[in-house]
Specification:
Structural class: alpha+beta
Radius of gyration: 33 Å
Number of strands: 14
Helix content: 10-25%
Largest sheet: 9 strands, antiparallel
Number of helices: 6
Distance between the termini: 37 Å
Shape: elongated
Length: 362
């Protein structure tokens, strides 16, 4: 979780200018947090953190690959090394980022109650006069499973196999060794082996060792295939609805590549505004801009739909709250004067009011 910054201020809650656009211009030289005149904060907008899991498959042919059909009756065993990539998972997670078009300030004023502003590390307002304001926790990075160690099959070869003068003879004797291992496993399972284990645990150890020998010696004919999965993060911060655009590309030979790299097949993303909020009254908005507006600005978020395509096929979709597709409203400064003990907690993702308590002190 990100660390929260709490600022203890005696303040009048008001923007430094008459509109959000003017505030952005006048506050461009300030960083969020304390300023000589008070404090500056952002409201959030939604960015999509898109996690793409790409599996890399590497095939290395075995030394006896040409003899796989003759001795093991396995056809179509490739004798050429190969590497390929494929997408095995896509996850979309909404995350808050500062909306630089929604930057506001509060001024010091000794006539108001002392308030504590809680900001995130990047300056988003999380609450006032609260101790339980929490920011959004980003997903943990993908942790791949550890790869099993590759066993050298030659350690299971007998002296007779290793001393052979030709590859063909070595392949023949190795195949006989494989069939012996499989026969011993079958006798063990049937309870007909010469040396039966004392208990179930010993039985399992013996079976695991025989399976290990079988896989290791068979890899000389069938080759070794390894799979490794890596995570790639793509950030998308929509500001308006848009049709399909290239999100990333995947090359069969080189894996994950940039959107402008034509060696990869394209994956697309589209953004739709699915908000059902009424349109803001522009005339009222212009009228308010001429007045001095005091208070705390919060978001009334809209919603977006994100759809990811592979070619023409939709493979992943999701609906998420989107403050940039919603509205910004003002909580009157009267809620924060000395007549009330006001506590405000905002949603860390959207900047919307999560809880507002305004009690009159006795």
């Amino acid at each position: 979780m990100k660390l929260l910054k709490a600022f203890c201020l005696s303040l009048i809650l008001s923007p430094l200018s008459f509109s959000a656009a003017m505030a952005q211009t006048q506050l461009s030289s300030y960083r969020p947090g304390l300023t000589p005149e008070g404090a500056v904060y952002f409201l959030p907008k939604t960015a999509l953190r898109i996690s793409v899991l790409v599996e890399k498959t590497t095939y290395q042919p075995g030394d006896f690959a040409p003899y796989a059909l003759r001795y093991l009756r396995v056809a179509d065993v490739s004798q050429d090394p190969a590497t390929s990539f494929r997408v095995v998972g896509i996850t979309q997670t909404p995350c808050p980022v500062p909306d630089t078009t929604k930057v506001y300030a509060v001024k010091f004023n000794p006539t108001t109650v002392a308030s504590r502003m809680v900001l995130s590390d990047d300056g988003r307002l999380l609450g006032l006069n609260v101790d339980d304001a929490r920011d959004v926790v980003l997903p943990a990075p993908f942790a791949p499973q550890p790869q099993p160690a590759i066993v050298n099959p030659r350690q299971y070869m007998s002296e007779e196999i290793l001393s052979c003068g030709s590859t063909a003879k070595m392949a023949e004797l190795t195949a006989h060794e494989i069939y012996d291992v499989r026969e011993n496993r079958s006798l063990l399972v049937k309870g007909q082996a010469d040396f039966m284990p004392q208990d179930g645990r010993q039985m399992q150890i013996m079976l695991d060792e025989l399976d290990k020998q079988d896989r290791s010696l068979s890899s000389l004919f069938l080759g070794v295939t390894q799979r490794d999965t890596t995570e790639h993060i793509v950030w998308v911060t929509p500001s308006a609805p848009e049709g399909r655009k290239v999100l990333f590309r995947l090359s069969q030979m080189h894996g994950f590549v940039e959107p402008d790299d034509l060696s990869g097949a394209p994956y697309y993303i589209s953004i739709d505004d699915i908000s059902q909020l009424p349109a803001p009254d522009e005339n009222a908005k212009k009228g308010k801009a001429k007045q001095y507006e005091a208070g705390i600005y919060v978001n009334v978020p809209g919603r977006l739909r994100s759809t990811i395509y592979k070619g023409v096929d939709a493979i992943k979709g999701g609906e998420f709250p989107a403050p940039q597709f919603g509205q910004t409203v003002l909580l009157s400064a009267h809620l924060f004067n000395k007549r009330y003990a006001t506590r405000l907690r905002l949603d860390g993702l959207t900047g919307a009011v999560q809880r507002l308590d305004a009690d009159q002190p006795k």
